[in-house]
Amino acid sequence: MKLVGRSRDSSHSNINKLPYIEGSIFKYSRREDVSALMKRETEILHTSDYIKWAFTPLTEIKGIGKVILDKLSKNRIEVIYDVLNVIPTKYDFYLHLTPIEQLDEGTHAVRGKVLVRENRRIYFFLKIDDGTGFLSCKWFNITPFLRKILYSIKVGDEAVVSGKVSHFGIFWEMHHPLIAKEFKKRIDITYPVIGGLESRRISKAIRDAFSEAPPFFDYLPYFIIRKRKFPFLSEMLRNIHLPKTPPEIGSYKKRLRYEELFLLNLAYQRMKQENKEKKAITININDKVLQILESKLPFKLTHAQQRSLKEIISDLKKDYPMMRLLQGDVGSGKTAVVAIAAVCAAKKGYQVSFMVPTEVLAAQHYEKLLPFFSSCNVNCEILVGSTPKRKREEISSLLSQGKINILIGTHTLFQEGISFKNMALTIIDEQHKFGVEQRNRLMKKGIAPHTLILSATPIPRTLCLAVYGDMDISIIDELPPGRKSVKSYMLTKKRRKEAYGFVLEEVKKGRQAYVVYPLISESENVPNVDAAEEMYKKLKETYFENIRLGLLHGDMNSDEKMKVSGLFRKGKIDVLISTTVIEVGVDVENATTIIVENAEKFGLAQLHQLRGRVRRSKHQSYSYFIPGDNASLLARRRISYLCSIDDGFKLAEIDFHLRGAGDILGVRQHGILNLVHTDLIRDSIILKQAKKDVEIMTKYNYPISEELMYILKKKWEKSLCYLSIG
Ligand code: ADP
Ligand code: MG
Q: Which residues surround ligand 2, an ion (CB under 5 A)?
């Protein structure tokens, strides 16, 4: 079959014969044209030589042995394709000789007569005269090889030197130029050092690879190349690695960044597609039932809660699984929304699992939701790690008979021996505490349950598109009425007594408080950072000797943890000394003050979460952030933002700009951190373009070539581990 319609390389003739109209596919007036065009593209797809070549292991290239390969593969460079995507940091062109009088700061080649030749104490010196001026050359480190060359040069000889020229006093100077008898055109390409492998070696590997390169097949859809005005693949790669003139690296980088984000979006689109092909139980709930359920809550849902609930309910009606993220700031009332969704499923006779990250949180949800569930005649149980064996067996048996409607618990929910009869909905609270793998294991328990993930970490929009691209998103951007904002202050360590004093006053009024430390116990490795255990003892003997003090941290066994958090909830502890175990979801309305010590040790989003612990109070609440004396200026700045801004989404945006994606809660384990060319802060526009283009492809059913599929897999299969593209 003839190769028409393929987005072949520009140096490969038939580009001009392509049946495309200039511009994007939008410009087609008639739909048929587009589909005919696409059909033609599909017909001629077959695995090209290009892909075979691009995915050749580097070992097949001469000169690359196991040692080098090991170094490279640690940096995820294993095949030719990977190495082609390494962009040089610098090009030096020596395409002609420059007369000395025309030199400027930069790289040049100069030919002239040697006027002076001296082996000075710290360097070897040559002075060259080309009739238009003088040039000094100095070599500080002389290898035996270089010595041989330099020593063979005599005063009066002609020599060609090339390298970087700089101005010293009234003379031009070159340090360590390359020296030869004759001028030859040369281009020096500097690659970044990868895994200890020098630029020279990478350069050689690429040259060797190119010497066997077949015609290039551009895997990026043609309409995108045209629409986005990208260079063609072969033009790009050749100009990057084998340039004849200074390459336009800027436009190549743009394409590489786009490619990366395009592939990410395409991967998400495939995941969504796959999800749609799964069968899920349809749960039809009519508005009347919904109204009745809502009326059983002790409050009226906010508009944002209602909107999110509607979105969830309409997902449940579909015959493929819901994949929805429910995002809302701490205290925005996510629990009420999902509780209604859970009852809806239970009322239709299906089971619901509700997974939370800690036992404390499980107990709290159970306690708070039980009255609501009971009023709806729905059975609810709790299963956590510390549930006694007999109870666990009982639950397990009731569960498999379908006699428990809603099961709340920790990761215990997806352990061996726990089987649901007909789970149709799974709710995962505070998602960032769970790995993707755990989530998948739970989902495997049902056929393909509807999945609802709750996150209290507001995430900047760009990041949300990049991290949760496979999910639909509902946002609760409104707090329940009457919430006062938390008054927030930053104090130095010296002034922390003031905060303690304030807590005592609040306790006198019958309120409760938290004091949070970054460490459980003091450690030599982390000097100058206070720890919960030691401070508990200290405070018990000093400031807080006359009040009821509790200690809660992650190393306590779960019985103790449950006991302490239970006492605090019931108001039998006035001040809780704690670590970040309280960060997720602990909900005590009577707590009005939180003190966070060594606040610089926490990210902005996390501090905001901690502050959220006192935002659910009916009373005015307060937070004190106390940075350590060694805290950096940036850390203090972060805290001052926190003190003046109350909106979690705004704070997340600031945190993202200050610290980058990797420090946003929950993003650390995510595959997007494997992005090589992209910086999500800088490239947010490119991300949106890529997303849009993928949507167009989906809409028009644009064929995905084998090449593109191959690259897609290679790039994302591992890091988006739940991805099984194609
Ligand atoms: P989060 O979104 O952090 O999980 P919760 O669901 O725990 O927040 O809700 C925080 C508190 O607000 C709870 O005590 C809950 O009962 C209350 N609440 C939730 N929605 C409303 C509402 N619409 N009106 C009044 N109070 C509400
Ligand atoms: Mg919650």
A: 585
